[in-house]
Design a protein that fits this description.
three-stranded antiparallel beta sheet
């Protein structure tokens, strides 16, 4: 599904030098690379403030804490996504209210949001899934109407953007009150371990986030609030500083690969390729097709027999996970989430993917449908 070894080999010397510099300095925690990466990422994403942290899930938890969300408060999250945004909410005693997903984009279905609101609703999490921006114009208007915080889960969509009706094109993670990033190794901008970051355009909020991520300290040994210990270590920051310089190239490689998939898979009855509106721009963290539920297991096995890996992101929507029994509120039928969990199938997508490999993958898919 990914080729981290191939990506590393292409930048081996530069990466090894960056790692060796950290080893030579022995400044493994809060070394110069951490502040340097935060500054470089802020410039790259046009974000006023970037606070590095240990991982993307911590970023979400710290975001909720910094906004002053309290046990019993409700937070709207999509049901068709990874568990992290709802898990972090439940961990703090917040109540996830699950939103349905759009069958075309996989992202939160903004048409059904109004029915989810109650007097306890305090925030909405816009998860930019598979590398594609949510419909942020609609989400921000909804949040303003109901006086809600907007947290962007940008774990899969760093460098993606959204174009507003007034022509502005803005980076994912910088449109809401807080943006949360993950640098898990398989992400579009990934380190060689765990890592994350929190974005905001509000100076006071940035101060709270920074304090919470550092044991609630405002200065050493002065704790004004209860926080946590969530740091990006210097080695990972050095690695990310190198890879950030290549992120534009990585994004173009993924977009070209997606274009090839679209072309090679066109005309196959039974397959629906990824769709988006003219306002959305994808960086293709995943390339996810939709197939008939009766075909999915058979197609996966056929591809596996031909040495082609696939993944199902995500086979069980969150509202059906046992972990949320008694911990969530259901206010919608979630038909879209149910449907997507039964039809999605992700194909290999990474920066080293070749045209020959894609031709082989797509021809194998054609062979399956010609035999079925």
């Amino acid at each position: 599904m990914v080729d981290l070894a191939g990506q590393y080999k292409a930048i081996r010397e530069e990466m090894n030098n960056a790692i060796q510099d950290v080893l030579n300095s022995c400044a493994f925690i809060n070394g110069n690379n951490v502040a340097g990466f935060a500054e470089n990422l802020a410039k790259y994403l046009h974000s006023k403030f970037v606070i590095p942290c240990a991982n993307g899930t911590d970023a979400l938890q710290i975001a909720y804490m910094s906004l002053g969300l309290k046990p019993g408060d409700e937070i709207i999250v999509p049901s068709f996504t990874y568990i992290a945004p709802a898990e972090a909410a439940a961990l703090l005693g917040l109540t996830p209210v699950f939103a349905d997903s759009d069958l075309m984009t996989f992202n939160i279905d903004t048409r059904s949001l109004d029915k989810l609101v109650s007097p306890k609703t305090k925030a909405i999490v816009a998860v930019h899934l598979f590398g594609l921006s949510c419909d942020m114009e609609a989400i921000l208007a909804f949040a303003q109407k109901h006086n809600l915080y907007v947290i962007e889960d940008t774990a899969q969509s760093v460098n993606a953007s959204y174009r507003f009706s007034d022509g502005r094109s803005i980076q994912c993670g910088t449109m809401g009150h807080i943006g949360c990033l993950s640098f898990f190794p398989s992400k579009n901008l990934g380190c060689y371990g765990d890592g994350g970051a929190i974005l905001t355009q509000d100076e006071e909020l940035a101060k709270r986030i920074k304090s919470i991520a550092n044991h609630g300290q405002t200065q050493k040994y002065v704790h004004d609030t209860i926080g946590c210990n969530s740091r990006l270590d210097t080695l990972q920051a050095a690695i990310l500083n190198v890879k950030l310089r290549y992120l534009d190239n990585y994004t173009r490689a993924r977009q070209l690969a997606a274009d090839r998939y679209n072309r090679l898979l066109s005309g196959i009855s039974g397959i629906k390729t990824p769709q988006m509106s003219v306002n959305q721009q994808s960086v293709y963290h995943q390339y996810t097709i939709q197939v008939e539920p009766s075909d999915r297991d058979g197609l996966r096995q056929f591809l596996a027999d031909a040495a082609v890996p696939t993944m199902v992101y995500y086979p069980i929507p969150l509202h059906r996970q046992k972990a949320f029994d008694g911990r969530c509120r259901l206010a919608d039928s979630l038909i879209g989430a149910e449907k997507l969990s039964s039809v999605v199938l992700s194909l290999p997508m990474h920066t080293e993917l070749t045209e020959a490999e894609q031709e082989y993958i797509c021809q194998t898919i054609r062979n399956y449908y010609s035999l079925s």
